[in-house]
Design goal:
The protein is of the alpha+beta class. Helix content is 35%, strand content 13%. Helix 1 runs antiparallel to helix 12, helix 2 packs across helix 11 and helix 13 crosses helix 16.
């Protein structure tokens, strides 16, 4: 019920955003620390997924930066990232943070590949930044747990603040300590979706993925039908942007509640998904679709208007994202399909979170930065998304509770046992198998999966024991 109320709040506020966009003029944003960047050029846009019943009297006019201690002012928080946020929508909070808090912020550049290992090397040398990202591949949980400090031990972070997404924060909680957080309405998270070329479907009279979704028949088989119809337009046209490496299959399988490695955040325990029937039927669908030649697209074909469907995360909804060079009106989007009619899929999501690095020099100031960075109020939402409709869909998609999402941890768990290419260690045999041989292919990696599960559970238990001693 609360999730429904949250989404209704969002949709109402975003419809208001759409209605005032025409009245919004542009201005020259400043990007220096000494000037304040305009966040909205007309009325303030509120995109709130917060249930009003959650806002007690204490938080009705809450300003989290009203009483910043002098010990935090003037210090520099270093944010470990591989992204130059002076060139993204993050340029605005970067520029305004010092003016609003008296705390400096510095982007501490770390390569995306090998992110956690690189940070661990720097930490061991005494060069410790303050804030880290938990994202995907080798930047993901549980690898990031190795460098994380409990945020609930940081005095400047009020986790009762209704801006924090309580259900998502619960997934980053182990033995009562909160290691990873995100906010409601955050610009920085990942929930996957289906993109489609709206113009191709409309001009050729084909029923689109959004049409199927609206009538309650958006299934994997109808996605296959969509792909075949686009391919029928000619040799230059492609069906679904998956291709021979099948990278998007973990996204699709996540939507039907499965992967090679599963995680139960309530017991903070990893387990094997090798015997899950949803994994088998999902990969058998892949083998059949692959052999029919419809999984032949790529992002380059999609950008050229020659591919029907692409499966990826919400970066594609942003105006700096995957499809920034396309006509925004050509880009359609909808939810991932259910496997069969009558079934309800989960939101297959990237575990996008933030945390404070153990032993960092400025944990209190870092707490303010995380709260500020993840607050949509500090962004220019009118100029963040491809279209107003893309903004509406982004917030509808991401503001679902943790129990309605499925997070895949195959990549980081594979890296834990030394598999250089992560998830491929588990997925490759299945991606090469026939439908009839799929069960054998999945079973062939059972031992590797068991090793990765054991390593991930050991990492969590070691962290749990270390912090029980450290914070007793």
């Amino acid at each position: 019920m609360k999730t429904t109320k949250r989404i209704l709040c969002l949709l109402f506020a975003l419809c208001m955003m759409v209605s005032i966009m025409a009245a919004c003029g542009g201005g020259d944003d400043k990007t220096t620390e000494s000037s304040s960047v305009s966040q909205n050029s007309s009325e303030e846009v509120i995109v709130s997924g917060i249930d009003p019943s959650d806002v007690t009297d204490k938080y009705k006019d809450f300003d989290p930066y009203a009483q910043i201690p002098e010990s935090s002012k003037g210090v520099t928080v270093r944010y470990a990232t591989w992204i130059d946020h002076t060139q993204t929508e993050g340029a605005i909070p970067l520029a305004n943070f010092y003016n609003d808090t008296g705390i400096h912020i510095e982007l501490y550049t770390v390569k995306q590949s090998g992110y956690v290992n690189s940070l661990m090397t720097k930490i061991a040398s005494g060069d410790i930044p303050d804030v880290f990202i938990s994202n995907e591949k080798d930047q993901a949980f549980p690898l990031t747990l190795q460098i994380a400090a409990p945020i609930n031990k940081v005095s400047t972070v009020d986790l009762e603040d209704p801006r924090w997404d309580k259900t998502i924060c619960a997934t980053g909680t182990i033995d009562g300590n909160v290691y990873l957080v995100n906010t409601i309405g955050t610009p920085w998270t990942g929930s996957n979706l289906v993109f489609f070329n709206k113009t191709l479907f409309e001009e050729n009279g084909f029923k689109s993925p959004a049409d199927y979704y609206a009538e309650g028949t958006w299934t994997w088989d109808n996605m296959l039908k969509c792909a075949k119809e686009i391919k029928s337009l000619g040799a230059d046209y492609k069906g679904i942007a998956i291709g021979s490496t099948g990278k998007e299959m973990d996204i699709l399988c996540g939507a039907v509640n499965t992967s090679f490695i599963k995680y139960d955040y309530k017991t903070h325990t990893f387990s094997s998904g090798v015997n899950d029937q949803n994994l088998l039927r999902g990969m058998q669908w892949y083998a059949d679709a692959r052999d029919q030649g419809v999984l032949d697209g790529s992002f380059s074909y999609f950008n050229k208007g020659k591919c029907g469907i692409a499966i990826r995360g919400p970066y594609g909804l942003k105006n700096t994202g995957y499809f920034k060079d396309m006509n925004p009106e050509d880009v359609g989007f909808t939810y991932l399909p259910a496997f069969e009619e009558g079934e309800k899929g989960l939101v297959s999501a990237i575990y996008g979170m933030h945390g404070i690095i153990e032993g960092c020099p400025n944990p209190d100031a870092a707490g303010y930065w995380i709260r500020y960075w993840l607050d949509y109020n500090n962004y220019d939402l009118q100029n963040t998304f491809l279209t107003p409709e893309a903004g509406v869909f982004y917030y509808e998609l991401i503001n679902t509770s943790a129990d309605e999402k499925y997070f895949t941890f195959d990549d980081p768990c594979a890296y834990l046992i030394g598999e250089q290419y992560g998830r491929d260690a588990f997925w490759n045999p299945a991606l090469k198998a026939s439908s009839a041989g799929m069960k054998t292919a999945i079973d062939s990696v059972s031992n590797k999966v068991d090793q990765a599960v054991a390593a991930a559970n050991k990492l969590i238990n070691d962290k749990l024991e270390a912090d029980r001693i450290r914070y007793k």
